[in-house]
Amino acid sequence: MIEVTQLQKVVDQNTLIDIPTLTVAAGEITAVAGLSTIHKETFVQLLTGQTAPTAGQIRLAGLTPHIDRTLFAEKVGFLPTEDGLYDRLTTRQNLEFFCRLYGLPLTRATELLVLVGLQDQARTRVQELSPELARRLALGRTILHRPQLLILVEPFKNSSPSSAELITKILHQQAAAGAAILLIADESAVLTAVAHTIIIMNQGRVSHSYRPGDQPTPPNLPFKIPARLEGKVALVNPADILYATSDDGRTHLHTTNGLIPTHLSLSELEGRLARSGFFRAHRSYLVNLQHIKEVISYTRDSYTLILDGSQP
Q1: What is the pLDDT of residues 23-38, one digit of tens each?
Q2: What are 110-123's pLDDT values in tens digits?
Q3: pTM listed for this prediction
Q4: Which one is the CATH code of 225-307: 2.40.50.40, 2.40.37.10, 3.40.710.10, 3.20.20.70?
Q5: Residue 143, C-beta contacts closer than 8 angstroms, at least 6 positions apart
Q6: Which residues, in sequence order, are CB contacts of 202 under 8 Å at separation 6+?
């Protein structure tokens, strides 16, 4: 359903996107993570036909995005970073507008309000919705016309845990109904929970890919974290890790002996270290609770953690 082959986009002699192959079949959910802003924008422009590849090709349900623009809108559901809703219209009016655009019965709007959990907000203007609820409405608009493919950019933006759980459920339902789904988002525990395959990018190029859950950590067994150290693989005791960070698809362990790179993604680390007292303090930080000396709170969602010998 989604086929990317030898895709390259070069701008001013800079290669912004280089993907040898990427395939998402019907019923599959694949996520692409680790893209910086410019690389993410370029990849989205390629997928939506706003720009043509320098080399290679993209096929979405047999369509070439920058050529088959009209059919693209019919077969593909696209959720951009921004919600793209009409602020002065109510949630129902927003969905009814797109029902008319796609030639769908207005009852479809009611179905979607129920699906995204906004039936009690049917008469609420979008400008009065919280960012969390507006994002759910934007997803509802995206799947309104039952597209064969879904391309979703940061679908969990502004989401609380309950919204993330609902969105995950909806995406699994869409995949079970036969949709091919491509997510473009920052790597997180939520992404690991929803995607069948996660592709990690580095400077617009594929670094590695993995399938969450393929290598679960056996319960109650001691283990160490593999890391690269002076041309060899080192094994790091989780107790020695203060915290881990992720930047542009690269993960580093901040230990009592210094900074050590690892090939594992932050989400992979989170899964392996979940039973060892680590938690996600920020989308880019995984912190060892055993090393926290002090928590300085500023607001409900803003705080500083003081660690043994370090401060993330």
Answers
A1: 999 999 999 998 888 9
A2: 999 999 999 999 99
A3: 0.69
A4: 2.40.50.40
A5: 77, 112, 150, 170, 174
A6: 34, 248, 249, 250
